[in-house]
Amino acid sequence: MSVPWPTLRTMTPLPPPSTELTADEARRIVLRAQGFLGAPDRRSGVRGVLRHLGAVQLDTISVLARSHELVPYARLGAIGRATVDRAYWATAPDGAHPARPHAFEYWSHAACILPIEEWPHFAFRRRAYRARPQWGHELPDGAYDRVIKQLRDEGPLTATELGGAKRTSEWWDWSGEKVAVERALMYGEVVCVERRGWKRVYDLAERAVPTELLHDELDDTECLRRLVRLAGEALGVGTRADIADYHRLKGEQFDAVVADSGLVPVTVEGWSKPAWADPAALATPVRGRHRTTLLSPFDSLVWERARTERVFGFTHRLEAYVPKQKRVYGYFAMPVLAGGHLVGRVDPARDGRTLVAKQVTLNGPKAVPAVVQALLEAASWVDCTHVRVERVDAPELRDRLVGELTRALA
Fold this sequence. Notes:
Blueprint: E1 20-21, H1 23-33, H2 45-53, E2 56-57, H3 67-76, H4 81-88, E3 103-107, E4 111-115, H5 123-130, H6 143-154, H7 159-162, H8 176-187, E5 190-196, E6 199-204, H9 205-208, H10 211-214, H11 220-235, E7 237-239, H12 240-246, H13 251-257, E8 264-268, E9 275-277, H14 279-283, E10 293-294, H15 305-312, E11 334-338, E12 341-351, E13 354-362, H16 368-381, E14 386-392, H17 398-409
């Protein structure tokens, strides 16, 4: 099956790439591939970021903003949050023909927003779900057919409109309707191409997905080859585990298709495992201006802990699900990227119009100006007029950090 979308990157023949990279070269390739080095592509905006990355992870936690908003912000700067939502989930005015969707939600690295043109390449996963013998939630008799009929009769609906998302107040205690519609989403009979607030809007795939993309005609090998290629392009360079983890493929699935994926084998100084790179990333020198920004812990630059340690020498762990007394860096500690390195962390909160840095970790005095810049831009983005610093892990740097923030806000 050929997918007629001009935005898909083609495998253009390139000069033979170098197969040996220094650790610094690999780090810079990673940064450019992830959109943090060089001029941002503002013309293509949020949709361009999504297509470039191939997947933007969703999560329920909202501190400064939700993670799917933080990802384009980190690359493009203070883009309006309403603009971000419209870019992902554009809808047509009432009474108009449904707008062609730009994205859909599905299981990739985790629950992710994915470019709509990649719908055919997740056919392998939909087939695997249909063949799955056991599930964590029991599907009540008749619930699946009732949900499909209701969507067919009434059009796109939230779980609440289908009859309620939960049976009790417990987060895990889904109603029969919620179990059914989520199962249908995993099977591919139902799709989410829109959210209202934070609620998924479910629709029949046959109605919402463009006809030329709808049918599951690609075999597993074609799907896997495409996803391995896309992951390699999004990462720039990565090990077998890095590339497979991007869309949560199995190692053997990677092994089966990597030779035909268009990625090329490389060795990276200090990496103990073999690696593969996007040949386009090797074909041109890595130059450009670095972004200084706070990163969501779910950003694809840092979402894999072992890779983050290997590429940046930076230990990062989301502690939102760690008991409070055992946290080291804070509930939602956000790494600070500056000059192509991870130079610290900020655990943020909001108190009215004040952005609160509950805990700041600095990798030495040189990190202070970068953290100040990142905090000021983030405060402006979320419409805060003040910044308050509570705790700094290097107490001797607290006065300097606070002083620079105060002068900048004066």
